[in-house]
Each structure stands twice: as structure tokens, then as C-alpha cells.
Design brief:
This protein has 383 residues and is α/β, with parallel strands linked by helices. The chain has helices spanning 27-34, 42-48, 50-53, 61-78, 96-105, 122-141, 159-175, 178-181, 195-199, 214-235, 261-270, 288-291, 293-305, 319-336, and strands spanning 12-17, 85-89, 110-115, 148-151, 185-191, 241-246, 276-279, 309-311. A 4-stranded parallel β-sheet has the order 2-1-3-4, sandwiched between helices. Strands 6-5-7-8 form a 4-stranded parallel β-sheet. Helix 4 (61-78) packs across helix 14. The longest helix has 22 residues, at 214-235. The chain is globular, with a radius of gyration of 21 Å.
């Protein structure tokens, strides 16, 4: 096997995602899975689920993951990479534990894991690792072999993730009316999270220069700068930009990252900005929080203000992203074989770590988390 397409020691790739309902009857059970242990009444979940009911109770995320699966398999086959690809979700079918059980029964024992979350945070990294630990413990309790799983590094600054987003912003700028295009501002959006979670995301070395925001904010800012710079080089126009947030879901008294996209649109309109491109850099695909919070809610706010807006596409199943995943698998495989692979990264930040160190994106309460420096197997909780 040529070195450049040698995936050893891995014998399979697991696409690990959040999951979403695929019909009206799925919405409340799905939300019960997402909020399990928080004591949220069923009636409140029905209210929260209205966003899904507006779209027939179907989240786009599962269909988009199927498209990404197809793109990955096509890319791997086209490059002679004999690595089967499976898919499992945290909160809806196909469930993670069921998928890992199938993988083990198919004979797989060393599994690379790609999470559909590009940045460091508790909910975007460690929680996936906790779910992996729970699934491995379930396999062990069933008497099945417990495979080794290795989560691939954060890919926020990989060229195959960033370049499709640059193209998406350029396309959105071109879609704006010509008389407002040159003065358009770029609003780079991502999911708001509690400031306490943001401040402890990643490791201290990953944090913003002022020590606030943690790796979550620092990584998004780095990506936004790369995209804005690329847009300036392509268009010759230095479009002002800002990192803003969306999809807040916490209690009002708990501080979350701000400003919210709708508040930001109001502020820009009040200051005379003629148009805005909303670029959801924090999301891999156009799932519900893009379709509702941006395409529905924020777009309605802009219409109310009389502010022209365009929404840039997410990466989704872009072939360049599929190629990036192949690159991540082969990079990690080479490292596991003792090689020193070239790690592709754009912008001011280096490529992320392979193995999450102890204390990275800490949990609210101690729980085992697989695929990190603190993992000792399904029978052992981390120190």
C-alpha cells in the first residue's frame, strides 16, 4: 500500500454527529434525549420543538450526514483508500452505541472518529468523547470486544474546511444588490455557549490573547480572519467583519457569548451599514440552527429593518471537505505508526492536538471520556 494512502492501524472510520428528528412524532423524544437529566417538562419541550414543526418535524442534519457519507466513500474509493465508513449519532438513530456494536461485529477494532464539530468546547468535543466512553462501556457490559477509538483532531483551520466557506462568502456577496455590495459587512456566526464554558475550552495555550473566550473564541476568530483576508484578496475590498453568535438556549441569568446575530443586525442597520453577509462558520452543515435561526429568524429581522442580507453556505458534503477528512485520517494514521506527518492549517493558529490533554474542555462533573489522555478503558473513570 502506498504510504500516502496507508490508513493503518485504522480499519474503519466513524462519522459521529448530533442527530435530529425525521418526522413530527420524533421531535419531543429527540429533545428528551438531548436534555436528558435536566428535568425539563415535556410541555416545555413541545414549545422548544416548534422550530422543528415548522419544517415538518424533520431536521436537515441526518440527510446532510448521508450526503457526507456518500462524499467520503466516493473520495476514499477514488483514492484507493480501503476504509469502510460508518455513521452514528449522539441523540437519534442511528445511535452511536448501535453503530459501534455493528462495527465490532463486522470485525473492526481500531476506529478513527470524525465528529461533526470543528472547534474545541465541552459540547463540541468532550461531550462526544463522553458519549464514546458510554458506548464502549455498554459494549463491554454486553461481553463484546471493546475497540480502540481515536477522535480526529479539530479541523477548524484545515484548508478543506475553510476554502469552501471562502467561496460561500464570495457567492453571497455577489448575490447582494450591486449598489450595496461594496459596503457589506461580514457577520461570522457560531453557536453561542455559556461564557464559563467558552473560557475553559481547550487548553490555556489555546486561549485568546486577553485570556478570555478560551479556544472556542480564539479558533473562530482565527477562521474569520482567514476568510476575511481571502475575500479581500479576491475582491479588492476590505469588508468589515465581526464574530457574532446565535442559537442561545440557556437560562436568562447565565451569561452566554454575545452579541446575538439579530442584535448585531439591528446595530449595523442603525449605524448605516448597507448590507450584511451572514457566514455560519461554526456549523459544518445547514442543519436546523442554520435553517431556522439564520434563514428564518435573522432573515426576518433583516427584512423588518429593510437591511439586505445574504447567507453564505456551510461546508456540508463539499468534495474539498471530504478530501480534508481523508487527509485527517491519513495524518493521524501516520502519527500512530510513529511518523511525523505534515499537518495542514491556515491562519495564525497551528493544527490542533491529536490527543485531548487532561483538563481540556472540562466537564461539568467528572465523567469518563474516551479518546483522550485521561482515558483508561471503559471500566475506569478518569482521575
Amino acid at each position: 500500500m502506498p504510504e500516502q494512502y496507508d490508513s493503518r492501524p485504522y480499519d474503519a472510520l466513524l462519522l459521529l454527529s448530533f442527530g435530529g428528528p425525521e418526522g413530527p412524532d420524533d421531535v419531543v423524544p429527540f429533545l428528551e434525549n438531548v436534555t436528558r437529566g435536566r428535568g425539563i417538562p415535556r410541555e416545555r419541550l413541545k414549545e422548544v420543538g416548534q422550530h422543528y414543526f415548522l419544517f415538518g418535524g424533520v431536521s436537515p442534519i441526518n440527510a446532510q450526514n448521508r450526503q457526507l457519507l456518500d462524499a467520503l466513500r466516493k473520495d476514499f474509493t477514488g483514492h484507493g483508500l480501503d476504509l469502510p465508513v460508518y455513521w452514528g449519532n449522539r441523540n437519534w438513530a442511528p445511535y452511536l452505541t448501535d453503530t459501534l456494536r455493528a462495527m465490532v461485529r463486522d470485525g473492526h477494532r481500531r476506529i478513527a472518529v470524525l465528529a461533526t464539530s470543528a472547534y474545541a468546547s465541552y459540547s463540541g468535543c468532550r461531550q462526544y468523547r463522553e458519549n464514546l466512553a458510554d458506548a464502549l462501556a455498554a459494549l463491554g457490559a454486553e461481553g463484546l470486544p471493546v475497540p480502540q477509538v481515536d477522535k480526529l483532531r479539530h479541523y477548524f483551520n484545515h484548508p478543506g474546511f475553510i476554502r469552501p466557506m471562502v467561496e460561500g462568502v464570495l457567492t453571497s456577496l455577489a448575490a447582494l444588490p450591486e449598489d450595496v455590495r461594496s459596503g457589506a459587512h461580514l457577520a461570522f456566526t457560531t453557536h453561542s455557549i455559556p461564557t464559563a464554558a467558552a473560557d475553559t475550552s481547550g487548553t490555556p495555550e489555546d486561549h485568546t490573547s486577553d485570556g478570555e473566550g478560551g479556544a472556542y473564541v480564539a479558533q473562530h476568530l482565527a477562521v474569520a480572519r482567514v476568510i476575511a483576508d481571502a475575500v479581500r484578496e479576491e475582491t479588492g475590498i476590505d469588508h468589515p467583519w465581526q464574530l457574532v453568535y446565535q442559537s442561545r438556549s440557556g437560562a436568562p441569568h447565565i451569561p452566554w457569548l454575545e452579541p446575538d446575530i439579530c442584535d448585531h443586525l439591528e446595530e449595523l442597520h442603525g449605524s448605516g451599514v448597507p448590507a450584511v453577509v451572514m457566514a455560519p462558520i461554526g456549523f459544518v452543515s445547514d442543519h436546523m440552527e442554520v435553517k431556522y435561526d439564520l434563514d428564518t429568524e435573522a432573515t426576518a429581522k433583516a427584512a423588518e429593518l429593510g437591511l439586505p442580507v445574504a447567507r453564505a453556505a456551510t461546508v456540508g458534503a463539499d468534495p474539498r471537505f471530504a478530501a480534508a477528512v481523508r487527509d485527517l485520517v491519513l495524518e493521524r494514521a501516520a502519527a500512530e505508526r510513529g511518523r511525523t506527518p505534515e499537518r495542514c492549517a491556515l491562519g495564525a493558529l497551528a493544527a490542533s492536538h491529536d490527543l485531548c490533554p487532561i483538563g481540556c474542555c472540562p466537564a461539568r462533573a467528572p465523567r469518563p471520556a474516551a479518546a483522550g489522555a485521561d482515558w483508561r478503558g471503559p471500566a475506569e473513570a478518569p482521575a
